[in-house]
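[09:14] KT: can someone run the structure on this one? pasting the chain below
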Amino acid sequence: MPTPHRTYTILHTESSLGWGGQERRILAEALAMRERGHRLLLACDPKGELFPRGQRAGFLVLPLAFGGWRNFPAGLALRRFLLREGVDFLNTHSSLDSWVGTLALTGLKKPFLVRTRHLSTPVKMNRPTRWLYNTPKATITTSQGIKELLQERLGVPEPKILSIPTGVSLRDFAPRQPDASLLEKLQIPAGAFIWGMVSVLRSWKGHLYALEALKELADAGLKTCLVVVGEGPYRSLIEPRIEELGLSTRVRLVGYQEDVAPWLALMDVVAMASYAHEGVPQAVLQALAMGKPVVGTTVGGIPEVIVPGETGLLVPPKDAPALAAALRRLDEHPEQRTEMGRRGRELAAREYSLEKMAAMVEHVYDLVWRDELSAVSNQLSV
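[09:31] RB: done, structure tokens below
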């Protein structure tokens, strides 16, 4: 991709208070773009996790409580900040900050507005939502499926919407041997087939279906253990379900882990049992980068990276027997696991590095700046 003729000042807004894949992408993208010479700013709610993390990373962060979409004080504060800092691009992410950001730009020729859509959740098809998604100069999605969804439901012109999945650090997520001390700490029996999940504990991540699959494997006599990495509101339902199914000796709930790579290294297979909302999940790309095969559902952007028989296996969502069968197949055929892991690492290195993500995002900004987006946008789709 061509070297940009200039560097940009880019402001990301985020109204979410959580710390999941979306917020991680914003910070990772900001860091990667800063490495390429651009000036990055953030505007987010001081009660959210992104606010202190952005400050610790050395970014100028505007504290902003977005409130409702008609929050005039938030819009005015954001507008003043944009003009004072000479922002070239405003990149919004969640619904509230997108409304506030779009309205804050009313009457301004610059900065240019870019929207990033992370989730495959269906959007409303009403006139205000159409306006919200058709106003930006460009919309970036984290998967091809989300791009197609926005085109179909809101009529966003194809040249204005581009699919750029989240990149993964090939250095931080590289194949490695399991940490023997972690295995000892978790008291996992030697020779057990270890599979795991890495995500916020939310209903649609499918943990309850994973437990049903584990029950089937256990009843079939498989020596297996499930490691669940993450924390969230659904823990209060997951824990009693583990007890009900008699799986307390086979499940390890290890909570939130800032560094998930050592935990992925423990797993023979990574499962992504989601039944809604996914783009291309970062945990899937991290697993592939570490040479781990993935059993994923046919949801969102998961099938864009999990090629059955090559980088993992696909199963229908909410189908515990199918999930159990796929896991059992990989337990019984370790040579397939090895080959899938090798191909997964190659795919991550070729298509899903942090560097490639940043270069593609940078190229979008270049095209918008030169008003050339419609001519070459198709080449950016992944």
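[09:33] KT: thanks! The two ends are 15 Å apart (CA to CA).
[09:34] RB: yep, looked fine to me
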